């Protein structure tokens, strides 16, 4: 591995130049899509192609800046930082070239950037064959954390405890849960309740473990990553739903609602589910149509939801419903209703409460992410009392905002899920390539294998460090765009990394008995849940970038 101290400085300078070209492209596209500080929806839709590329470029630039801020002085993690930054800049360069052509922008500054002699020099030094071989040798011998992050002693202790639990309790059950499509058993849920995993986002005043009036994002990321490394479907995703619902309650719930629900959520009784997506609307939250009709003492729900994860086992559903029948109200006509129901491990249920109506649910068969199970829900004249409208009367029409407050945390938590799966896949790939011999030598001895492993490790390290960095900033600012950026990058990275891990296993990787096959199908869901990749890129990241540019 190279130890040239000027490499980091060169990478930072090149990154600054690329950032300048990116900023200019964002400004140019923003001006074409709006005026007087406002964006035109039709113009935005027409610019979806370039917007998508700019959103991805922004996520890659964010991660590259993060790994170059304070890389290790020497050794493996410094090499991985330089490798990722180099590959990210290569990707961003290609995206900006595409944007310049498609949007008819001046490409001269970008061509001048590419002609800088330090660019090919950095690529040779940080991402050339010799660098990849040296990084892989160090990776195979490493006993240190890939992508180290600075956390408090309390967070480090919790991370280690949940890693042990994941290794000793979750991992031995994960294959059976996946193979037989089982619901997460109490042998996993019971100890996790005792360990306080469901109260990580809930302040101590309401029975959780978060300090003050905000959650401990670093703790949530560390615990989620540890559990996801053992199994995404059997443990790693358990925190997502209480994370979203807790943040929504803290953002908009009445004090009575906080006192009534948060301590119970923190104790894991009841478990939670989020009923937002609808069959005809997907990620288009503003068009949601589940009808809530006001009646004496409450509301009647009629309509369908889909992809409601853990709805069977959950005893509390956060339901986004339309309380204003005028669809022209868009997202301002939405409210959140809290629906209580019996918990069941069955793949189908039919609940008819004393208040009247009916709620039916049926699990959707999926290729992966088993254990949690996602349900289709049908509400028929289902009664919900006024006391269960989030925020009470003042909360009517504010469901979109409360939901978005929850989704920021959910996206950070999903980024941690992705890094946990990546850690597991990289570990399996390293072990297999060292043990497997082909053509007379270990698989890890071949240059192409080394290239794959080094790039996998660099991507994991960058996503991990960026997730923690964004999580820390989330405590002091809105962070909505950055949370979306790292969710976008980490989830796609989990797909890429698990794909390479499976490929390195050859035929054995395609066998269900091999853990990497499960990692691969589990990882595929991450770019869809908690904000589909396309919606996240266009409606959150690109739109946010353009709004800032016009401000």
TrEMBL record:
Acyl-CoA dehydrogenase/oxidase C-terminal domain: residues covered: 397-545
Entry-linked PROSITE patterns: ACYL_COA_DH_2 (PS00073)
InterPro entries reported in the protein's UniProt record: Acyl-CoA_DH_CS (IPR006089), Acyl-CoA_Oxase/DH_mid-dom (IPR006091), Acyl-CoA_Oxase/DH_mid-dom_sf (IPR046373), AcylCo_DH-like_C (IPR036250), AcylCo_DH/oxidase_C (IPR009075), AcylCoA_DH/ox_N (IPR013786), AcylCoA_DH/ox_N_sf (IPR037069), AcylCoA_DH/oxidase_NM_dom_sf (IPR009100)
One Pfam family this sequence matches: Acyl-CoA_dh_M
Transmembrane segments: none
Record-annotated Acyl-CoA dehydrogenase/oxidase N-terminal domain positions: 152-269
Keyword Isomerase: no
Keywords: FAD, Flavoprotein, Oxidoreductase
Superkingdom classification of source: Bacteria
Acyl-CoA oxidase/dehydrogenase middle domain mapped to chain residues: 273-381
Cofactor: FAD
Keyword DNA repair (UniProt): no
Family: Belongs to the acyl-CoA dehydrogenase family.
Protein name (record): (2S)-methylsuccinyl-CoA dehydrogenase
The species this protein was found in: Pseudorhodoferax soli
């Amino acid at each position: 591995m190279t130890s040239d101290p000027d490499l980091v400085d060169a990478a930072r300078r090149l990154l600054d130049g690329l950032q300048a070209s990116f900023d200019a492209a964002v400004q140019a596209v923003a001006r074409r899509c709006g005026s007087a500080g406002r964006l035109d929806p039709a113009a935005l839709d027409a610019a979806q192609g370039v917007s998508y590329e700019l959103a991805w470029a922004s996520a890659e630039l964010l991660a590259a800046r993060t790994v170059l801020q304070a890389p290790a002085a020497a050794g493996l993690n410094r090499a991985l930082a330089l490798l990722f930054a180099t590959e990210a800049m290569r990707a961003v360069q290609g995206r900006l070239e595409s944007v310049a052509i498609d949007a008819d922008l001046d490409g001269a500054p970008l061509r001048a950037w590419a002609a800088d002699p330090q660019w090919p020099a950095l690529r040779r030094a940080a991402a050339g064959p010799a660098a990849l071989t040296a990084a892989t040798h160090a990776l195979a011998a490493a006993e240190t954390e890939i992508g180290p992050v600075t956390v408090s002693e309390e967070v480090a202790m919790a991370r280690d405890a949940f890693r042990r639990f994941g290794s000793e309790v979750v991992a031995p059950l994960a294959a059976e849960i996946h193979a037989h499509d089982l619901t997460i058993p109490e042998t996993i849920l019971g100890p996790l309740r005792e360990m306080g995993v469901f109260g990580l986002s809930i302040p101590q005043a309401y029975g959780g473990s978060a300090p003050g009036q905000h959650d401990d994002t670093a703790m949530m990321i560390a615990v989620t990553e540890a559990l996801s490394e053992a199994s995404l479907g059997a443990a790693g995703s358990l925190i997502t739903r209480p994370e979203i619902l807790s943040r929504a309650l803290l953002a908009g719930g009445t004090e009575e609602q906080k006192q009534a629900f948060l301590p119970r959520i923190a104790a894991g009784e009841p478990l939670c589910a989020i009923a937002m997506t609808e069959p005809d609307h997907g990620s288009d939250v503003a068009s949601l149509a589940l009808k809530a009709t006001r009646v004496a003492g409450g509301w009647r729900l009629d309509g369908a939801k889909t992809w409601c994860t853990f709805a069977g086992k959950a005893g509390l559903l956060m339901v986004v419903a339309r309380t204003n029948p005028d669809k022209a109200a868009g997202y301002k006509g939405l409210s959140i209703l809290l629906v209580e129901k019996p918990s069941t491990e069955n793949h189908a249920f039919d609940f008819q409460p004393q208040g009247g109506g009916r709620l039916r649910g049926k699990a959707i068969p999926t290729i992966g992410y088993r254990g949690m199970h996602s349900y289709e829900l049908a509400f028929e004249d289902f009664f919900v009392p006024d006391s269960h409208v989030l925020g009470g009367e003042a909360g009517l029409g504010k469901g979109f905002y409360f939901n978005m407050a929850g989704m920021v945390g959910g996206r950070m938590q999903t980024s941690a899920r992705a890094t946990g799966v990546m850690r597991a896949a990289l570990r399996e790939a390293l072990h297999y390539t060292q043990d497997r011999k082909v053509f007379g030598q270990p698989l890890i001895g071949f240059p192409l294998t080394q290239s794959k492993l080094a790039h996998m490790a660099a991507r994991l390290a960058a996503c991990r460090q960026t997730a923690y960095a964004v999580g820390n900033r989330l405590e002091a600012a809105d962070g909505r765009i950055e949370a979306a950026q790292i969710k976008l990058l980490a989830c796609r990275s989990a797909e890429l990394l698990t794909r390479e891990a499976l490929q390195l296993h050859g035929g054995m990787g395609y066998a269900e008995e091999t853990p990497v096959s499960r990692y691969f199908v589990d990882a595929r869901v991450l770019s869809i849940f908690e904000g589909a990749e396309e919606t996240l890129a266009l409606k959150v990241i690109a739109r946010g970038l353009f709004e800032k540019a016009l401000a």
